[in-house]
Amino acid sequence: MDATLLDAEAEAAVLRVYRQVFAVLAREAGAMIVDPDLLDVDQAILDAFAEAGSDGLTVEQATAACGSYDHDVVVRRFDVLRQYGAITKLVDRPNELRHRAAFAPYVMLMFLRRMSVQGGQAELHQLLTLEHHSVSDPKATAEQGQASIERLTKVFRLLGNELAILVATSTAAQLRENAQLAWGNETLIEQAEKVHRIVLERWPELHRVCTALRMSLAAYADAVQTAAGRLVERAGTTRALGLLPIETWLTFTRGSDTEVLAGVLDGLLFDAAAPDFAPETLLEAVESGRRTGTARLAPPRSSGDDTEAPESSAAIDRENLRAEAERVLAGRDEVSVTEVVDAAGDWITARRVLAELTAAHLHDELEYELVWTDGMRIDPAAGTPWITEGSFRRRAS
């Protein structure tokens, strides 16, 4: 009976903390948050309790402390946190007005913030470090070693499954949004293998569960390779600058000179005269742009068929770019960008022409180049008020 009561008490404690933690996600009892602003409201409420000290807060004091948010929203979130046990009465009596807050919801908020920025990599590294210390403890038992191996097996199975599904069913854009799942994978696998070696050396009888961990690590590594292959392929054709983790860009910017930094943007066209586009719209436009080097092969034809094979789409695109370049040059070897933009009449038309010239410049089978200089023509009366100076010309052979 005592053992049963102890088990029930332990389960009740786990449920209590679980409800407190996930209170920061509940829009109302039994529901989940769909508006990220509500997380900020939760954090403001918990911040107010942290500042209040041991005296606690009433509902009115909490709403006053969160004056930058809508009063009704704060009251509603306060009730949700209270229903989930994240906020409780200071003293459990009917007419008690003051409340106290548990620390678990705030920890959950911190965890969510870090997860959104780092994709859970830091937490996974910490988990692996804890498991390493656990199985290295001289007092550790075979049961604890088996539990560690089984936990890691499930973690890497879930990671590998998620990546494999993303590779098989998602677009490159969706895969890029989840690219953090593949960051630091070599270090993660090495840490897991260290835990595996320790457990196998200390408890050889656990070779079966260790084999399961090795299989999950191999599946995760394969999924990472496949995902990375798709991302690299897509980045190579679109030059999408958002595919690399922020740490890589920080290292690059700190260790590069001006010329190298400017080279990153070489060949990219920026719409400075009409900056009313969201970054997501510009990114989508870049990714859906012209792809070079991916010519489709014509279907096989019988040797007896004398009909001329149709040109590939890449060849058609190349010739279209050549025709546009020759139209702009009009028999000359070089034309200024200012003249091209002014001849277009308006920026919308000029932007399309410049995009075509940029594509011709980047095409490895065309003999044209677009060269920019440091000057700028500013003319308020012109159709396009400011134009970066440069020239479009035939590339010297």
UniProtKB/TrEMBL annotation:
Which residues does the annotated region (Disordered) include?
288-314
Q: Please give the name of this protein.
A: DUF2397 family protein
Organism for this UniProt entry = Kribbella deserti
